[in-house]
Amino acid sequence: MEIEHVRSRFIKHFDGKTGNIYASPGRINIIGEHTDYNGGFVFPGAIDKGIMCEIRPNGTNKVMAYSIDLKDRVEFDINDEKGPKASWARYIYGIIQEMKKLGVDVKGFNTAFAGDVPLGAGLSSSAALESCFAFALNDLFGDNKVSKWDMVLAGQATEHNYCGVNCGIMDQFASVFGQEGKLMRLDCRSHEFEYFPFDPKGYKLVLVDSVVKHELASSAYNDRRKSCENVVAALKNKYPDKTIETLRDADWDMLESVKADVSEEDMKRAVYVLGEKDRVLAVCEALNAGDYETVGQKMYETHKGLSKDYEVSCEELDYLNDIAKENGVTGSRIMGGGFGGCTINLVKDELHDKFIEDVKAKYEAKYGKTPKIYDVVISEGSRKIC
Ligand code: GLA
């Protein structure tokens, strides 16, 4: 995104002065979906699309924020107990509160921000927004004393405490820690992670956006998490001597043994999670061996699990997955929370153009809307631009 785009609006909508500019990216995830809050592994990377903000302290306790994309302006007092109503402004309000809890002496500021990470497309526009402001507030008011991990957790707490989404840590982690050309394998239980060079020669990663917005899916997301917790509660009951914190601690036999104690629906959710745990490990091995056929096959299996057992797909996403299969695409699946948004596709170079042409034509013919296609580049995490 162009700095000028943000700067010109910042100057126009405030007092003509300039401030500091920060940027944070959205993310992709190769495999490990809905595993983060189950203590499992994820495999994300930051992308070359994100949020950019310009910000300047204004010497008051008021935040004056302008969303360039929505052409909406909101003002609130940083000490106000309730905070603003506009959903985009709640992310800023929330991260202020969470950074204050970490000892950052946040004062009022003017800010304008814009994004080129599409909203509600499963690319973590909200985590990009939280991370961007966490980074900015840490720099402007906190002498950069807050660690990257604390900023990740502050972003997650913003979702939990101010935005009603009980998300895991994958998105904020990827946005803060991303590195150019590298995916990251994160153990969401221990927080240990490893950078993983990702340059699949002969393949492209293509995101196909169903343009079905998933913005209203937060209660369904929270329900999935609750189902997993219900199964954990049943397991704890059955195995009082074992330490069971999340579904990460369960194996297939243990799961089978609580079948009668949990609802059929909760069981299906847990079956998906345990399957995904196995798939992430298989994909790690395959990536190490440069075996992209196996990576792709696991991606299709994940899609099936997300669609049939976890039930976070929708007709449009399933259709996109079918078209990928018909085109001989190596791997394809829903990416992110689901209920709309994108599929991620691992496509051989020579099939790329034909696949895109075909997916556009078929999707348009069936749904009367054009899917958006994004070629993504694995890029750097949160940073100060100037
Ligand atoms: C959303 C959440 C993440 C993660 C994914 C699913 O993006 O914010 O924490 O749970 O869904 O993998």
Task: Explain what this protein looks like in three dimensions.
Helix 6 (218-238) packs across helix 8 (264-288) and helix 8 runs antiparallel to helix 9 (292-309). Helices cover 43% and strands 21% of the residues. 49% of the residues are buried. The mean pLDDT is 96. It has helices at residues 3-13, 87-101, 125-141, 148-162, 170-177, 218-238, 252-257, 264-288, 292-309, 315-326, 349-367, and strands spanning 20-29, 41-42, 44-57, 62-67, 72-77, 109-115, 182-187, 193-197, 203-209, 331-334, 342-348, 372-375, 383-384. It is globular and about 60 Å long. The chain folds into two domains: 3-199, Ribosomal Protein S5, domain 2, CATH 3.30.230.10; 203-376, GHMP kinase, C-terminal domain (Alpha-Beta Plaits). The chain has a six-stranded mixed β-sheet with strand order 5-4-6-3-1-13, with helices on both faces. It has 386 residues and is α+β, with helices and mostly antiparallel strands. Bound molecules: alpha-D-galactopyranose (GLA).
Question: Care to give the gist of this entry?
Answer:
Helix content is 43%, strand content 21%. It has 386 residues and is α+β, with helices and mostly antiparallel strands. The strands form 3 sheets. A 6-stranded mixed sheet has the order 5-4-6-3-1-13, sandwiched between helices. The protein has a 4-stranded antiparallel sheet with strand order 10-11-9-12. The chain has a 3-stranded antiparallel sheet with strand order 2-7-8, covered by helices on one side.
